[in-house]
Amino acid sequence: MKHRLIVAIVGLLLVVSWSLAHCAGGPTPTPAPTSTAPAATPTAPIPTDTAAPTVPAPTATAASPAQVSEPFIKIVEPQTGDALAGAVVVTGRAGGLFENTFALELRDASGQALVSMPVTVAAPDMGMAGEFQVTLRWTPPSEPTSGTLWGIYYSPKDGSVAASDHLDVTLVPIP
User: Fold this and answer.
1) pLDDT at 69
2) What are phi and psi of 65, to 5 degrees?
3) Residue 94 in contact with residue 72, Cβ under 8 Å?
4) What are the residue boundaries of the structural domains of the chain, listed by start?
5) Within a 13 Å sphere around the CA of 37, how many CA atoms are in the beta-carbon half?
6) Beta carbons of 61 and 69 less than 8 angstroms apart
């Protein structure tokens, strides 16, 4: 019985070593060069430092400028100091917003909202940066007064202001 066990183990070792030698794909021989031309003479000094150069790994924002890590709103038009008379086209960029939506408000000098509306950002996907354009309409004042145009994004987590942009404008009567 002992003799059969030893023969089985030796046989198994022979099979395994033969498999490793023939099936594991040992080293591949390198073909001998066929060209008899002399080697080229280098024109520049050969660097002695053989370390590979350090290349920074691309980040999500570098790979795709539309991806943002923090919510933001940027009102592009109108601009600070513009006179607004009852209607205005508001354009800008925003991103990182839940459902790509934020609130746009025009407030008078006392801070009272004259008009408020939700704005949806035209972005390639939810949370990505994109552009918006909306028209706000309100009842113009009887005389010029100061006002503030606000873009506000409230956090869906706790209702706090997570991103905003504002600009001061002048609200004027329709001429």
Assistant:
1) 86
2) -60, -20
3) yes
4) 62-171
5) 4
6) yes
User: Could you give the CA distance from residue 106 to residue 114 in angstroms, rounded to a whole number?
Assistant: 6
CA dist 156 and 175 (Å) reads 42
- 33 versus 149: the higher-pLDDT residue is 149
Location of structure tokens 């691309």: 58
Confidence band, pLDDT 50/70/90 cuts, at residue 175: confident
Q: Which residues contact 43 (CB under 8 A, 6 or more apart)?
A: none
Q: Which fold has domain 62-171?
A: Immunoglobulin-like (2.60.40)
pLDDT tens-digit readout, 86-111: 999 999 999 999 999 999 999 999 99
Residue for token digits 């918006």? 132
